[in-house]
Amino acid sequence: MRLAYSWPALAVALAPALAHAQDDLSSGGLAPPPPIEGSTSSDTTATQAETQAELEQADRKDSGRGLEFFWVNAEAGAQYLGLETFKANRVVDSQLVSTTQTGPLFGAGLGVRLIFITLGGRFRLANFEDFQLWTLDAEVGLRIPLGALEPYFTFAGGYATLGSFDALEGADVSVKGLNLRGGFGLDYYVANTFSIGANVSGDLMFLSRGGIDDLDADAGPDGGDSQAEVYARDGSGIGGGVTLTAVAGLHF
Question: Could you tell me the residue ranges of all domains in the chain?
Fold first, then answer.
């Protein structure tokens, strides 16, 4: 015997059974979760309190200096220089000019700061017994703020030349080339805008010298090359230097 029900009649017949099953689930603690309509006011308040606590903790750890956009510093110290440390090809007359010398150094730099990165330029002048060394470099730095202390690394590259170099009387001897530098330093912020510190750096210099025409190239003592003959030919050298300086800086 076939029982025929229409869909509306079937829904009316099953409604009491479905309602009873839902009551059983609710009484047993298995009621379906309410629809998600967003966080409640208590959840929002708890989140805001947690965020505020994190900000206060970060503020206590921070140096309190705020953002820095510009910097300028000056330095003074000493440099040990070897003109032909890695390659020697008569960049100077080594019989009369010592290729390794130590002397005082002064420098200055300025630039901008982008949170942890600094960009700028640096000029240095080192005075030695027989010549001066001038360098002008573009510089990039990585700063690591640790409260009032701030260690940093720098990398630079640019131009180097020997100045006040009187190799031959009346002759224009020009020694110049590429300079590369890496350094590490540590600044201590005495105030929000003033710091003192120290820096150590190493330089690698690729120097060259053009020959000078019309020089008397007579042989020197013991059959060696005369000074004129040395500078009549091209010369080159790959040198290195180590510098230690004290640094004072202003930060804005």
Answer: 70-251
In CATH, what class is 70-251?
Answer: mainly beta
Tens of pLDDT, residue by residue over 200-244, are 999 999 999 998 876 655 544 444 467 778 888 899 999 999 999
Cα 152 from Cα 170, distance rounded (Å): 46
Q: What is the DSSP string of the chain?
A: ------HHHHHHHHHHHHHHHHHHHHHTT-PPPPPP----HHHHHHHHHHHHHHHHHHHHHS-S-----EEEEEEEEEEEEEEEEEEEE-SS-TTTS-SEEEEEEEEEEEEEEETTEEEEEEEEEEE-SS-EEEEEEEEEEEE--BTTEEEEEEEEEEEEEEES--SSTT----EEEEEEEEEEEEEEEEETTEEEEEEEEEEEEEEEE---SS------GGGPPPHHHHHHS-EEEEEEEEEEEEEEEEE-
Q: Which residues does residue 33 pair with via DSSP β-bridges, in sequence order?
A: none
